[in-house]
Amino acid sequence: MKIVIALGGNALLREGEEPTYANQMSNLGRAARQIAAVARNPSNMLLITHGNGPQVGEELLRNEYARAKVPMLPMHILNAETQASIGSMITSVLSGEFRKMGIRRNVATVLTHSVVDAADPAFRHPTKPVGPFYTRAQLAAELKRRHFSYVEERGMFRRVVPSPVPASVLEIPSITAMLSAGTVVIASGGGGIPVIAKGASYQGVNAVIDKDRTAQLMANAVKADTMAILTDVDGLYSEYPKRKSIIKHISMAELERMLPSLEEGTMRPKAEACVRFIRRGGSSAFIGNLSQVSRILASRAGTLITR
Amino acid sequence: MKIVIALGGNALLREGEEPTYANQMSNLGRAARQIAAVARNPSNMLLITHGNGPQVGEELLRNEYARAKVPMLPMHILNAETQASIGSMITSVLSGEFRKMGIRRNVATVLTHSVVDAADPAFRHPTKPVGPFYTRAQLAAELKRRHFSYVEERGMFRRVVPSPVPASVLEIPSITAMLSAGTVVIASGGGGIPVIAKGASYQGVNAVIDKDRTAQLMANAVKADTMAILTDVDGLYSEYPKRKSIIKHISMAELERMLPSLEEGTMRPKAEACVRFIRRGGSSAFIGNLSQVSRILASRAGTLITR
User: Fold this and answer.
1) Peptide bond into A166 cis (omega under 30)
2) What Rg do the C-alpha atoms of chain A give, in angstroms?
3) What's the average model confidence in pLDDT over A220-225?
4) Interface residue A171 vs chain B (CB under 8 A)
5) Of B230, B229, B190, B228, the residue nearest B209 (C-alpha)
6) Which residues of B touch A85 (CB under 8 A)?
7) B205–chain A nearest CA distance, Å
8) Which of A24, A84, A98, B265 is the most exposed, having the fewest neighbouring CB atoms within 10 Å of its CB?
9) Residues 35..54 of B with a Cβ closer than 8 Å to A: which?
10) Domain limits of chain A?
């Protein structure tokens, strides 16, 4: 089986924790044990992707605080940096777990670029909040220095950037070659580095791509059998948060009808990614709790979505 | 031919330039055109590595300046970040050049870890200067906060970290698979993320690995035919900087005898890497100017080293 696993932010940090290296390495142990249980079967090819919200936020802050002395990097380069920092942490912890369990498989991170359309309407309507919260006075000062879009959140202000739809991932041939070699591949963290085609070249853009959307794109591109989107919730609920209302199995068509009722920033993009993955050829998708990866993939936990 | 190209710092920045994104993208054009001329021949497999001195220095500064508000990342994670930031820049510029020239090849960066021995004597004798220059008073203040080794440079003080010898690169199987798929691979920037084996696991360490040494290690591991170390000097000189004294061809044994006369921080590690590469099975190595890559590989410029 070819499996794509999308790790939620809780794989790296629990609610309220600071994104220190030590905290993240310690949290990753849990995800690594779960993934190792799946990787133990050598016929399972594994492609892992992950979020980067808190980590890219911290990079943005470092760039802001140091900007008087060190030139700021563009936002898409900060995505690249978090693909590497998180990729390295997952590689270390997962390789260690493999060695403990006697699993002879390599783990590697390939840096990826997600191609978006320069005409994507998202570029005219930025929606994704990034970076620090500003007071009204701080916002005014920032806007004198450089132009940006912002939203109000709980009386504070925050910069927003576009969240365009990814059309392709440039590194798919490398990912395919690595999966075929038996390597557990880590790719497209934080949705990947957003680039647009400009003349003959690709150019990084100031945007953030939805990571579940890129997970789906990669899953279809590598012809994965299944995709598991892992989070801190046990699955989809018909009446959240009633435990007994958890949906064990739902068809793609039923889930599609349910989409408008799901919360926009959290469950809806995950459910949309599952629907799209199956419509484009995937056999099954799962949404479930990170701590139950192997049970989820055996259809014994979480929500299973099929055609 | 399987070719390893080690790009010197001048591929990204010229003497005295600030490491901004714009400067680096603009400088990379030159290296990209040179590399594209080699990649045009589809039987040439290409593995590219590069320095990261100024870039990792800036990351360290961002971490230092922001440390009151954002937790600092360990040094080896900063190496990871620069592998990605520089890898993404090279990928964009080189892919663009390929498209312009009608070369249908993929370019991808794989994040790499260099395994070092925890007993390496370098850990007891740190020698590699990193990060900001401190005055005597600043140094005293820093040393109250945390312990580190330092050296004096022109009346100022600088932190030094160990520069251990890399024993292996964890991601060689992925690099091999990608090269076989025809991808131009970028790997091990700044010498790679230094890790030591600790129990069953790998652990990042506070060190900086010589990039030419890692280039040689990868070149032998992927069984490269040739390795080209590119810099801003036209080659090895018998009487530097007399133009006419440039050495066009030298044997591994002759070069080995010449090593003690070469400058420690610059030409000597490059020459050592060439000697070691050939001793361990490589056919030829080159040291030369970045602006002459294709001429160098045709033995029409630079210094050729053979058995």
Assistant:
1) no
2) 19
3) 98
4) yes
5) B190
6) 73, 77, 80-81
7) 12
8) B265
9) none
10) 2-224
